[in-house]
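[audit] Reproducing an earlier prediction to check determinism. Same input, same settings, fresh worker. If the tokens differ from the archived copy the diff job will pick it up downstream; this log only records the rerun itself.
[audit] input (357 residues):
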Amino acid sequence: MIEEVADLSPQALARFDAIIDVRSPAEFAEDRIPGAINLPVLSNEERAEVGTIYLRKSRFLARRIGAAFVARNVAAHLETALADRGAKFRPLLYCWRGGMRSNAMATILAQIGWRVGVLKGGYRTWRRAVVAALADDPVPLSLILIDGETGTAKTEILRRLSALGVQTIDLEGLAAHKGSVFGAELSRAQPTQKLFESALFDRLRTLDPARPIAVEAESSRIGRLVLPKRILTAMRAAPRIIIEAPAAARADYLTRAYRDLIETPGAVERAIDRLRPFHSKETIGGWLTLATDGRHHDLAAALMRDHYDPLYARSRKRAESAPAATLKARDLSDEGLDAAARAAAETITRLSRRSSP
């Protein structure tokens, strides 16, 4: 039995035991429905070969060769990835347009006796939903910004807010980047722009739009990724909760938060090199000396004083929304961060009540 599926809501997708993306690995790597697994019916090379035959020789020949590829690949998936699936297995399949590739695999799986769904319109249906929600939707988002100078542990406070039941979106987590030249994650690369947007849309649609959503204050880019228009517009109008902490505590926190970078030979020096267009040779040289000498606390303090704090001061002057509250953290230990998160949660509740009709 094959069911055509048009509903992309989390509730509708939860009916299926697996979401299977049958597109090529290259298509899957660029973007996909979150949680989908890739069981391609055509490899990258096979897809290119079939496409070339289709354009240069004949449609019939391309379909015949493509069918052979599909049959072999589906057989391999049945013998490996799907080998342990029982009689009640219920997968949802999709390809680029919901056409030949997904229907070819769905036909074989349905013959086994599985109840198979095929996404109507394929991946393009998903992508249209993402764009509609993040770029075209005129309904404003009720965001509250967690803001503050570099090293005030905004991301960590955001995570603690989530544990306290506050709705949050961790933009830097989704982007796999901390938002500065030192912010690239060494354990994983940034996703593609489309994949970032898919993850953001998927997170956003699990949240209650009637309740506030806390996000960390960001510029229009996180690493090489661009924030979607709807998110950026909402952030510019959102009330800000400013986190303040002593410079020494911020430097301590940064040396903890960037421990993986510090322990990777040459990583700190390469990041400092990317700041050469903005500072004198003497300043860059001083920072490099601190890094080489292992004086990372002093380096963090110097970078804050001479680079990041001035940048933040300029961004505050350009901010379109005034601070709604300022929270002063005495330190950024676990206890201090817990206290800051509780205070921020109380402030968010108060702001939410104030804005309610």
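[audit] rerun output stored. Observation attached for the diff report: The first strand starts at residue 2 and ends at 5.
[audit] end
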